[in-house]
Design goal:
- The complex is a heterodimer of chains A (390) and B (482).
- Chain A has 16 helices and 14 strands.
- Chain A has 390 residues and is an alpha/beta fold.
- In chain A, strands 3-4-2-1-5-6-7-8 form an eight-stranded mixed sheet, with helices on both faces. In chain A, strands 11-10-9-12-13-14 form a six-stranded parallel sheet, sandwiched between helices.
- In chain A, strand 9, helix 9 (235-249) and strand 10 form a beta-alpha-beta unit.
- Chain A folds into two domains: 5-200 and 374-389, Rossmann fold (3-Layer(aba) Sandwich), CATH 3.40.50; 209-372, Rossmann fold, CATH 3.40.50.
- Chain B has 482 residues and is an alpha/beta fold.
- Among the domains of chain B are: 2-161, Glycogen Phosphorylase B (Rossmann fold, 3-Layer(aba) Sandwich), CATH 3.40.50.2000; 176-337, 3-Layer(aba) Sandwich (Rossmann fold).
- Chain B has 16 helices and 13 strands.
- Chain B has helices spanning 15-29, 53-63, 75-78, 84-100, 120-131, 142-152, 176-183, 204-211, 232-246, 260-269, 284-291, 304-307, 318-329, 358-376, 410-447, 459-463, and strands spanning 2-6, 33-38, 46-47, 68-73, 104-108, 136-139, 159-161, 190-195, 219-225, 251-255, 272-275, 296-299, 313-315.
- In chain B, the strands form two sheets. Chain B has a seven-stranded parallel sheet, sandwiched between helices. Chain B has a six-stranded parallel sheet with strand order 10-9-8-11-12-13, sandwiched between helices.
- In chain B, strand 6, helix 6 (142-152) and strand 7 form a beta-alpha-beta unit.
- The longest helix of chain B has 38 residues, at 410-447.
- Classes of the chains: A alpha/beta (390), B alpha/beta (482).
- Chain A binds chain B through residues 82, 85-86, 88-94, 97, 156, 159, 178, 181, 196, 248, 250, 320, 327, 329-331, 333-340, 342-343, 345-347, 349-350, 354, 357-358, 360-361, 363, 372, and chain B through 316-317, 344, 348-349, 354-356, 358, 361-362, 364-366, 368-370, 372-373, 376, 395, 398-401, 403-405, 423, 427-428, 430-431, 434, 467, 470-471, 474, 477-478, 480-482.
């Protein structure tokens, strides 16, 4: 095995990245460890909000990986925003409008040039998520060599015709979870080949809850959220739900949060402690010390942080509307879901009044992750799929 | 003292008019020369449309002839609506009265709920300016004073707390037995009374649902009231009450206007008054109950907790409402309050090993949430007509805008121009409409085949509303796909 050169195409290899980019980086690292010659093709941008080119373009060697960075362009997006509004409104855009929308966002022309000349030198080109511009050019330039991690979740953009073309044109699709596959199938996005390779989370960093509490001045019980504080991740709704719960319960539900994004104005009844961007070890300590980890996002394709919480023995309280998170909670038994502010409030009541009842739920979480979401198993399936398809 | 009372006034079906008539009577009995100016023609001496500038100008001119002017303030008296234009119109009229009307005092019965609109800060600033003009601003409780101070950054020393019931007088002199006989109520029954206008914020549905948990054939819950103003929401709420009342023969709903005497006779006839309001500033009914020494069960909203007497009970949720009704009537609450509807009990733990059972806890959360949902938002769970919508394909019917495909000729160009001009307004509306549609579909899903009609519902179903009615959840855990 380990016979061939693999390209992993990712929007950024920076620090402020999404779960898909982290996962691609881990897959690349896992393949490299097993002897595959792996190159990461990415941009010089390190921030998915600004796409500002920060890292030097060109080739660098990082651990066992060769990293080729290209300049990201198209950072001003008024046309994309306007077209996005029409998509979100449910309007059916023509195919040319869809491409105008795709090209009005972040693009990487240098990557196109590179792939136009060099795609044939790779045995396989792994790309994701489905909305990354490079996936579209790969569907044109090298569909027979491209495997896509769609990282799909239910949103209007997933219904665009250009993505149906993209996903059915490529060699195959790698899915992380059953709900993701079910969604793809319901939208007619499945082509000739697909496989469930899953995804994984790394072993938790060493945890020191006492040190975390001291360093960030966190006292008492709290719930925890780590992630981007933005609309797409359900942050405003979480603030609204917390306010309601605090009013109903007559006490503040303390939330500690880390990550990027503005937390926005907070009402009097909210006890939110924002610790900003923190090292992974501190994030893990924060999760480990929490009464529960909160996942308010309805648009998740895998939800790495939920599985990290499971690993750490922390129960999860999650948005029922996220199919994949609901799937994790139901199969592991390690989390509760809420479908509205009333259920959210009752989850909070349980947490505050009887924390051991929910804390006890988490006992099965670590085993669930260990059995199904470890990197060796994922890389096994990735390698098997590569051997079979390419 | 020559006093002008600016207020709704009888004959009118209006709680504020009833309140004002008692103030009027008391002051006159004390020897004051009191005259009433009302927003509609009434038993008062004069009237003016207080929602217009010209009407307020008339009121201000008239007010200058009096030594003291007392305004009974409720937003509905002075504002057509709270959109920016009507707000400014009403605000200007009040400023006119406060600045030109002489020695003006205001008794605030309610202020508008704080919105989260674009002009909220500016609106708050305007209210602040307004409330600084009268010589005195009065409210009925410390809670209301604190709310006004916090909301409008006012000096607390300028806001006075007056007793809501200081001018209230008894309107009926019958005995309890006579009152019961007149309504055909058994002498040995225990009667809870809900009285007032039928509107969601009065929360009478809360009382019915809580009452359903009480055991005892001798127990009665009587609801008297009418719709003050017809709106679709009020009608829907009345329908909800009618449906709930059907389920329990011990509950009766007397729709229609009750005269002051009849209203008081109902209070005399009852054993306890239930005020399960969702929001209110202060309650005239609570004061009337106090006149006849009837205990009150009231929710902890506005100034109610402060207003009710020591013999009364203040509750904050469905569970404590049931407990208070049970305690006052010395009746037993059904087990429903002690099992899965309210408490974790044994359901949360597996028999083996004491490990919490996720499915049981999830059901517990759903069951409790359903109670909470009814407590705060009764109409959302009502059965509604099942719409002919493709629930299996929720995105199929989204509102879509024209594709804007290019074309040639003046017509196509004109279309493009129009589109560019209106897109910025139309697209957000389309998003909003589609979001509403999605919400409707979600509600419809929860109704289709899952919520029985009222006639099909059993009383037990009302006692223990359960969340699974609202949303179809997978009952079994899905198997992993290997």
């Amino acid at each position: 095995m380990a016979n061939g050169r693999i390209a992993v195409v990712s929007a950024t290899a920076g620090s402020n990245v999404g779960g898909a980019e982290v996962m691609l980086r881990d897959v690349a690292g896992g393949l490299a460890e097993r002897g595959w010659e792996v190159e990461i093709l990415t941009t010089a941008a390190e921030d998915i909000y600004t796409w500002e080119n920060v890292a030097p373009t060109g080739v660098s060697h990082e651990e066992a990986l060769t990293v080729r960075r290209f300049e990201a362009v198209g950072l001003s997006q008024p046309v994309r925003d306007q077209l996005s509004m029409r998509i979100l409104a449910g309007e059916k855009l023509t195919m040319s409008e869809q491409y105008r929308w795709a090209n009005a966002g972040m693009r990487v022309p240098g990557l196109y040039d590179y792939l136009a000349e060099n795609a044939g030198s790779y045995r396989a080109i792994i790309c994701g998520p489905y909305m990354f511009w490079a996936g579209l050019i790969l569907a044109d330039l090298a569909p027979e060599r491209t495997i896509l991690f769609p990282c799909l979740h239910d949103e209007p953009f997933a219904r665009l015709g250009l993505y149906r073309y993209q996903m059915t044109a490529v060699r195959g699709l790698w899915f992380q979870t059953d709900p993701e596959f079910d969604l793809a199938r319901s939208l007619g996005l499945i082509g000739d080949r697909y496989a469930f390779v899953g995804s994984a989370v790394s072993n938790p960093a060493s945890v020191d809850v006492a040190s975390f509490r001291r360093r960030y001045r966190v006292d008492g019980d709290y719930i925890f959220f780590a992630g981007r504080r933005e609309w797409g991740k359900g942050w405003p709704q979480l603030m609204s739900d917390l306010t309601f719960a605090s009013e109903v319960l007559g006490r503040t539900v303390p939330l500690v949060t880390c990550g990027v994004g503005e937390i926005g104005p907070l009402g009097d009844k909210l006890g939110v402690r924002d610790i900003g961007v923190v090292p992974d070890a501190d994030r893990a300590s924060g999760q480990a010390g929490a009464l529960a980890y909160i996942q308010p996002s309805a648009m998740e394709s895998f939800s790495r942080t939920v599985l990290e919480a499971f690993q750490l023995g922390t129960p999860v309280v999650a948005n029922w509307h996220s199919g994949v998170v609901r799937w994790h909670c139901e199969r592991s038994g390690a989390g509760l879901t809420y479908a509205n502010r009333y259920e959210f409030t009752e989850c909070m009541r349980l947490l505050l009044d009887n924390p051991e009842s929910i804390r006890g739920l988490a006992s099965g979480g670590a085993a669930y992750v260990e059995e199904q979401f470890t990197w060796p198993a994922v890389i096994d399936r990735v390698e098997a799929s590569l051997e079979e398809w390419m | 003292m020559k006093t002008l009372l600016i207020t709704p006034f009888p004959p009118a079906r209006d709680g504020l008019a009833t309140y004002a008539s008692q103030v009027y009577s008391k002051w006159r009995s004390e020897g004051h020369d009191v005259e009433v100016l009302s927003p509609e023609p009434s038993a008062g001496k004069s009237s003016a449309d207080l929602k217009t500038l010209s009407g307020m100008w008339q009121a201000a001119r008239r007010a200058r002839r009096f030594e003291r002017v007392v305004v009974q303030f409720h937003p509905e008296t002075f504002f057509y609506a709270m959109d920016p234009v009507h707000f400014l119109q009403g605000w200007a009229g009040l400023m006119l009265l406060f600045l030109l009307g002489g020695n003006v005092e205001v008794v605030v019965h309610e202020t508008p709920h704080r919105s989260s609109g674009r002009f909220d800060d500016a609106r708050s600033a305007l209210w602040r300016v307004l409330w600084r003009q009268p010589k005195r601003v009065c409210v009925h409780s410390e809670a209301e004073r604190a709310a006004m101070v916090a909301e409008y950054a006012l000096d607390s020393g300028r806001i006075y707390v007056i007793d809501h019931g200081e001018t209230f007088q008894r309107r009926s002199a019958v005995t309890r037995d006579e009152a019961r006989f007149s309504f055909g109520i058994e002498a040995d029954s225990f009667v809870f009374l809900c009285a007032g206008f039928i509107q969601p914020h009065k929360g009478f549905d809360r009382a019915i649902r809580a009452f359903a948990n009480l055991e005892g054939k001798h127990l009665r819950l009587v609801i008297i009231g009418e719709m003050r103003v017809w709106t679709a929401e009020h009608q829907e709420y009345l329908d909800l009450l009618r449906g709930l009342v059907e389920l329990d023969p011990r509950v009766t709903l007397h729709e229609g206007y009750a005269s002051d005497e009849t209203f008081d006779r109902w209070i005399i006839a009852c054993d306890a008054v239930v005020l399960p309001y969702r929001h209110i500033w202060s309650s005239g009914v609570a004061e009337r109950a106090a006149l006849y020494d009837r205990p009150v069960i009231a929710t902890d909203v506005g100034g109610l907790a402060e207003q009710v007497r020591s013999s009364s009970r203040v509750v904050r949720d469905a569970e404590t409402l049931v407990a208070a009704m049970s305690e006052l009537s010395a009746s037993k609450a059904r087990k429903a309050t002690g099992n899965s509807s309210f408490t974790e009990g044994a359901a949360g733990r597996r028999a083996r090993g004491g490990v919490p059972d996720r499915a049981a806890l999830q059901r517990l959360v759903a069951g409790r949430a359903a109670v909470l949902h009814d407590w705060y938002d009764p109409l959302a769970r009502m059965e509604r007509p099942i719409l002919d919508v493709p629930v299996s394909d929720p995105l199929a019917g989204h509102l879509a805008l024209p594709s804007g495909q290019g074309g040639v000729g003046p017509k196509a160009i004109a279309q493009q121009v129009v589109r560019r001009l209106i897109d910025w307004r139309v697209v957000p509306i389309a998003i909003y409409v589609n979001a509403l549609r999605d919400q409707l579909l979600g509600d419809t899903r929860s109704v289709v085949g899952e919520v029985p009609t009222n006639a099909q519902r059993s009383p037990e179903a009302v006692r223990k509303p359960s969340a699974p009615q609202r949303r179809r959840r997978p009952s079994s855990e899905s198997e992993p796909r290997s």
